[in-house]
Amino acid sequence: MGKGCLAVTKYFLFLFNLIFFLSGVVVMGFGLWLLLDNQSFIVILNNSTGVKIACYTMIGVGALSMLMGFLGCVGAIYEVRCLLGLYFTCLLLILIAQIAAGALIYFQKDVLNDEMSKIVTKVLDNYPGNNSTTEQAWDFIQKNMQCCGWTSRQDWIGNMAIVNSSQMLFPCSCQNISLATVNVLDSGFCDSQTPDWPVYDVGCSSNVESWLLTNIWVILGVCLGVAFTELLGMIFSICLCRNIHAEDYTKVPKY
User: Fold this and answer.
1) Structural domain count of the chain
2) Which of 24-28, 47-51, 78-82, 130-134 ranks highest by mean pLDDT?
3) Which member of 73, 218, 222, 236 lies 3.0 to 4.6 Å from 13 by CB, making a disulfide possible if both were Cys?
C-alpha cells in the first residue's frame, strides 16, 4: 500500500473511531436514561432482574465502545500495531455479542412478553394510589398513551384497593377524556358514578407495540448504522495494521 493510501486509511480510521466513540456515548447515555428517568417504562419493570441486566449491559457496552474508539484513534494516528490489533479484536467481540443479543431477543420475544405481563399485573394488583415513583410512571404511561391496564382495563379488577373499597373506584389516569364529566386527578383512584368505568378500553401493550412498529425502521437504522461503523473500523484497522512494518513507540506522546 502506498504512502498516500496509508495516510488516507489512517485518517479515515480516525474519523470512524471518532464516530464509534460518539456512538458509545449515545448507547451509554440511553442506558443511564432508562435507569434514572422516573417517567420511563423501565420504572414499571424495576423488579425484573433481566431488564436491569439489559440496562447495565447497555451502559457497559457504551463505555467499552468509548474506550475502543479512543484506542482506535490513538492507534491510527500514532500507528501502533498492538493498539490496532487490540482494537480489531474488541470490535469483533462486540459485534458478535450484539448479534447474539439481537438473536436472543428475537427468539425469546414471547418469553419476554410473558415476563413483562406478569410484572405489570403485579404492579397493578398492588397499586395503592400513594403516588410512588412506580405509580407515577404507570400513570404517565396510561394518561399519555390513552390506555388502561396492560392487555385491557380488566387487569385492574384484581387490585386490592378496588376490591376492598365500598365505592366504585377506578384508576384516575385511565379516564377517557371524551367521557369525563368533571375534572379528576391524574393519579390515584377516582369514584365512578356507574358500574361501567369511564376509561379507555384499549390496553397499553397494544399501544406500546404500535409505537415499536411505527419506529421499527428508525431502530433498525440505528442498529445497522452502528454495525456498519464497526465493520468499517475493523476493515480499516486490519489494513492499517498489516501495512505498518515497524512499531515506533517514540510516536506515542509521553505524559
Assistant:
1) 1
2) 24-28
3) 236
Contacts of 38 (CB under 8 A, 6+ apart): 133, 136, 137
Nearest to 58 by CA among 34, 80, 38: 34
pLDDT digits (tens, 9 = 90+) for 131-153: 666 777 788 888 888 888 888 88
Phi, psi angle pair for 179, to nearest 5°:
-100, 0
Considering the domain boundaries, does residue 160 fall inside one?
Answer: yes
For residue 101, count other CB atoms closer than 10 A to its CB.
Answer: 14
Containing domain of residue 200, as a range?
A: 129-254
> Rounded to the nearest 10 degrees, how much is the dihedral formed by the CA atoms of 162, 144, 131, 122?
50
pLDDT tens digits for range 159-207? 888 888 888 888 888 888 777 666 566 778 888 877 788 888 888 888 8
pLDDT of residue 42: 55
Considering the domain boundaries, does residue 33 fall inside one?
A: no
Query: DSSP characters for the chain?
Result: --HHHHHHHHHHHHHHHHHHHHHHHHHHHHHHHHHH-TTSGGGTTTT-HHHHHHHHHHHHHHHHHHHHHHHHHHHHHHT-HHHHHHHHHHHHHHHHHHHHHHHHHHHTHHHHHHHHHHHHHHHHHT--SS--HHHHHHHHHHHHHT--SSSSGGGGTT-HHHHH-SS-EEEGGGB-GGG-SS---SSSEEE-SSSS--B--S-HHHHHHHHHHHTHHHHHHHHHHHHHHHHHHHHHHHHHHHT--S--GGGS---
